[in-house]
Specification:
By secondary structure, the protein is an all-alpha fold. It has two domains: about 40 residues, no CATH class; about 35 residues, no CATH class. Helices cover about 55% and strands about 0% of the residues. Helix 1 packs parallel to helix 3 and helix 4 packs parallel to helix 5. The chain is rod-shaped.
Amino acid sequence: MIHEHTLPATEKQLAYARKLALRNQVIVPWEVQQDRREISRWIRTQAALRPAERPDTPSAKQVAFAERLARIKRRHVPQECFRDRGLMSRWIDSNR
């Protein structure tokens, strides 16, 4: 419910909330978008969460390690490895 004394969310808040929503794979509730204090509270909560990670995609650590190995071995990590955790794991094992 919007009251007369409620300040609307700023464009900056809305942009950051959308960015966090994408990262965490959630939706910014409509009511939250209407109130500066509510969106601020929502942003604090979402910013504290770890980014949503799909279980079948490689972890950030896996990707970083694979890229480091690729630089050392002067090779490229195949693009399909970035979409599949198992493939990335096998590529790392075969390039150690």
